[in-house]
Specification:
Layout lengths: L4 H19 L8 H15 L4 H25 L3 H10 L7 H4 L4 H7 L2 H31 L2 H4 L5 H32 L7 H15 L3 H19 L9 H22 L8 H33 L24 H7 L8 H4 L6
Helix pairs in contact: 1-13, 3-9, 3-12, 7-9, 7-13, 9-10, 9-12, 9-13, 10-11, 10-12, 10-13
Length: about 350
């Protein structure tokens, strides 16, 4: 299918924006000196007597929320509502796949992607403010010596901190999943399909990446997954059991990254503003990543796979740093990554 002039122009803009993101130096939301202090305070709290049990419970719970939170968040976005939205705008479609046959300009006119972006980001800010308040309370106790000097009695204060962080992680993962799922539906993709859930995780991973190497690795993963999906690669090994395990491992990695990025919440008073700001920023980044990822995939699919983007992003084996969540790596660990049919199709004559 031939792209319209508008679609070709948008494709060019996407590639320019991607190159700009990778060439842009990372801005640190919190000065390094303050980040070091936050890390020190965090280590102090988590090294207090009784901390190991709380940390173990937190880690186990974080892994367990993956599939449940992802499912519930994804299913709160209505496929029927999106189809009706297009029909009310004068487009007689019966299913999501027909959205992908429309011109991208139509999608831009009908979809309310800015509403998806800012509504979820503001919800995240409110969540971050609440969890930061609870974490701040626990840190005040630690700073005053209550936790450090109370021995086993320190557990309640520390439990407040760990519990608040767990609740924040669960809500942030739910908001991230819902943000990406809502965007997917606008472009005609059902986020509840198993392979689409993997793509959703990869989009979230891109939104969480901050360093240049992590972003490059995330772009590479999305490029590989996009090609697999466009070429209808078989996902036969991605059954419910395997998908659940992958989602749980993804949730654990997500929680580790989120906790590391939000250590500013351990600072009394200032931590509340920092927590709210970081929550807003994370979901806003994920919303932008979702818009660009599905936009690019929409155009690649419409071009029949002739569009591929910059080849620098085509190798998902690129080394990842500790700021990257490797979804491809999780698939490989479960032997669930399908073999691309490209090697077979390359020998076939063009239509």
């Amino acid at each position: 299918m031939t792209l319209s002039a508008y679609e070709q122009s948008e494709w060019d803009r996407l590639q320019e924006r991607k190159a700009a993101v990778l060439s842009k130096p990372m801005r640190k939301f919190i000065p390094q000196q303050a980040r070091d202090r936050f890390a020190s305070l965090g280590k102090k709290a988590m090294s207090a007597p009784g901390a190991e049990k709380v940390a173990a419970a937190y880690g186990g719970a974080a892994k367990g929320i993956g599939k449940v939170v992802g499912d519930s968040a994804g299913r709160t976005v209505s496929k029927k509502r999106v189809i009706e939205q297009y029909r009310r705008s004068g487009h007689d479609i019966a299913g999501l796949d027909e959205i992908r046959e429309l011109d991208l300009r139509v999608v831009d006119d009908v979809a309310r992607l800015n509403l998806v972006r800012y509504a979820h980001a503001l919800s995240a800010a409110a969540t971050g403010l609440g969890s930061a308040a609870a974490v701040t309370g626990g840190e005040v106790l630690a700073s005053a010596g209550t936790i450090a000097g109370a021995g086993a009695g320190a557990a309640p204060g520390l439990g407040t901190v760990a519990g608040a962080m767990l609740a924040d992680t669960a809500m942030m993962l739910a908001l991230a999943t819902r943000t990406v799922a809502a965007t997917a539906l606008c472009y005609g993709y059902c986020p509840n399909d198993p392979e689409e859930e993997i793509f959703v995780m990869s989009v979230i991973a891109l939104g969480m990446a901050t360093g240049a190497s992590a972003k490059t690795a995330a772009y590479a993963e999305l490029a590989q997954l996009t090609q697999l999906l466009v070429r209808n690669a078989p996902w036969s090994k991605l059954n419910e059991k395997v998908l659940t395990k992958i989602a749980q491992n993804f949730a654990a990695k997500f929680s580790q990254q989120l906790t590391k990025k939000k250590l500013g919440q351990f600072v009394p008073i200032a931590g509340m503003a920092v927590g709210a700001g970081l929550s807003y920023r994370h979901i806003d980044r994920i919303a932008v990543s979702a818009r660009d990822a599905y936009r690019e995939r929409f155009l690649i699919e419409k071009s029949g796979g002739t569009l591929t983007g910059d080849l620098r992003f085509g190798d998902a084996d690129r080394a990842q740093d500790d700021d990257a969540i490797g979804v491809i790596e999780l698939l490989r660990a479960e032997a669930a990554l399908p073999t691309s049919p490209s090697s077979e199709s390359e020998n076939q004559p063009d239509d």
